[in-house]
Design brief:
8-stranded mixed beta sheet, 9 helices
Length: about 375
C-alpha cells in the first residue's frame, strides 16, 4: 500500500451524484473534569462550535467516563459524568458515541450497567423528536458478544465498532469491548473484523480504537501504524483512534493495485476537558503537555461510493477548536481561528490572543 498524507484534498474525474455523498465529523475525547461543571448551562460550552457539528450528517465522539445517575459526578481518577452533561453533548450535534475506553469501568459493574441505562434513555428521548443517536462499546452481560451499531443514514449502511486496548483496572472488563494489545490478540482481532465485514453487509466500516499507547505524545510508533494498516486490510474503511488527549496526524491510505481508499486518524485530541487549567499565556512557545490538551480537532470528511466498490474520500476539512476559560472560570469551546483571535484583542485580552495565535500555529 502507498500512503498519502491526508492534507492533500483528493479530486476525482468520476462524477457521482450528490445524493450518494455523506458528510461525517470526528471529534475526540469528551471529558468531564471538575472545571467543566463550573457553568450554569452545559449548552453554553458548545454554542460557538454548534454550527460545525450540525453541518455533518453524523458526528462521532468518545465519552470518557461512566454516566451513572445514581452516583454523584466525579473527576479524575475515577470519573462519573452526569446525564445532563452528556445530553448537552448530544444536543450540540454529536450523534454516534464510543463508550469503551480506559475509564469505562471507573464505577465498576454497576456503573457500566447504569451507563447503558442512561444511554438507552437518551436514545429514546431523541427518538421521540425524530432524531437517531447511537451508543456502542458496553455489554449488559459478560457473555454477550462485541457491542456495535449498524447505522443507516442518507442511503448509507454504516458499521460502527468501538473497542479499547486500554483499561485502568480490570473490574467487569468482560462487559466492555476490550482486546489485549499484544501482537497475537491484535492479529486475532483483525481476523475477527475481516469475518465481521463479510457477515454484516455495509457500505462503510468505522472502527473506534481507544489505544494502548502513551498519553500526551504526538508520535505514533511503527507497531501502532502496522496494526492500523492490518485493520484496513481486514476491511476497516476508517480507523478513528483516541486516548492520547493531543492532536496527531491523519493519513489516507491508497491501495495502488485496487485504488481502494481508507482513512486513519491517529488522535483528534480532547474535544472538551478541564486538563488545561492554567494555560501558559505568556510562554514564547506554549507546546507543553497540558497546553496541548486544551485544543482539539473536529475532522470533517466527505465520502462517496466508488463505482467499483468501496469509498472515495472526496473532501476533508480540519476544524480546530480550543478551550477558552472565561473571566468567570467557565470552560467553553471556541473555533480556533483568526476571528476568535480578533475578538480576544477587541475585548482587551491581548495575552489570550497571543496565546491562541501561537497554539494555532502549533496544531497546524
Amino acid at each position: 500500500m502507498r500512503k498519502l498524507l491526508v492534507f492533500v484534498i483528493f479530486l476525482f474525474p468520476t462524477i457521482i451524484s450528490a445524493d450518494s455523498d455523506i458528510t461525517l465529523l470526528f471529534g475526540g475525547d469528551i471529558m468531564a473534569h471538575d472545571q467543566n461543571y463550573n457553568i450554569k448551562d452545559f449548552d453554553d460550552i458548545w454554542k460557538d462550535v454548534n454550527p460545525i457539528l450540525q453541518g455533518a450528517d453524523l458526528a462521532f465522539a468518545n465519552i470518557e467516563a461512566p454516566v451513572d445517575s445514581t452516583r454523584p459526578v466525579s473527576s479524575f481518577p475515577k470519573f462519573n459524568m452526569s446525564v445532563d452533561y452528556l445530553d448537552a453533548v448530544v444536543d450540540a450535534g454529536f450523534s454516534v458515541f464510543s463508550m469503551c475506553n480506559n475509564h469505562s469501568n471507573d464505577q465498576g459493574l454497576e456503573g457500566i450497567q447504569e451507563t447503558i441505562r442512561s444511554c438507552d434513555e437518551l436514545t429514546l428521548k431523541y427518538a421521540k423528536s425524530g432524531r437517531s443517536i447511537y451508543f456502542a462499546g458496553l455489554k449488559q452481560s459478560p457473555s454477550d458478544g462485541f457491542s456495535y451499531a449498524v447505522i443507516e443514514k442518507n442511503g448509507w449502511k454504516i458499521l460502527f465498532f468501538p473497542v479499547t486496548e486500554s483499561l485502568n483496572q480490570f473490574d467487569a472488563f468482560k462487559n466492555i469491548n476490550y482486546i489485549s494489545a499484544d501482537a497475537q490478540n491484535r492479529q486475532r482481532f483483525a481476523s475477527y473484523l475481516k469475518k465481521l465485514r463479510g457477515t454484516v453487509s455495509c457500505d462503510l466500516f468505522i472502527l473506534s480504537l481507544h489505544t494502548n499507547e502513551p498519553e500526551y505524545v504526538r508520535e505514533v510508533s511503527d507497531a501502532q501504524k502496522k496494526f492500523y494498516e492490518d485493520l484496513v486490510v481486514s476491511g476497516v474503511d476508517i480507523v478513528w483512534a483516541n486516548h492520547a488527549h493531543v492532536i496527531k496526524d491523519r493519513e489516507i491510505i491508497v491501495d495502488k493495485e485496487t485504488g481502494r481508499q481508507a482513512l486513519i486518524m491517529y488522535s483528534n485530541g480532547n474535544t472538551v476537558s478541564g486538563q488545561r487549567t492554567s494555560p501558559n499565556l505568556t510562554m514564547e512557545y506554549p507546546d507543553t503537555k497540558r497546553d496541548n490538551t486544551g485544543d482539539g480537532l473536529l475532522y470533517e470528511v466527505v465520502l462517496s461510493r466508488a463505482p467499483s466498490g468501496g469509498i472515495r474520500i472526496t473532501d476533508t476539512k480540519p476544524h480546530y477548536i480550543t478551550t477558552y476559560i472565561t473571566p468567570k472560570r467557565e470552560f467553553v469551546l471556541k473555533p480556533m481561528n483568526e476571528e476568535f483571535i480578533r475578538w480576544l484583542k477587541e475585548t482587551g485580552q491581548p495575552k489570550w490572543a497571543g496565546y491562541i495565535e501561537k497554539r494555532l500555529n502549533i496544531v497546524k
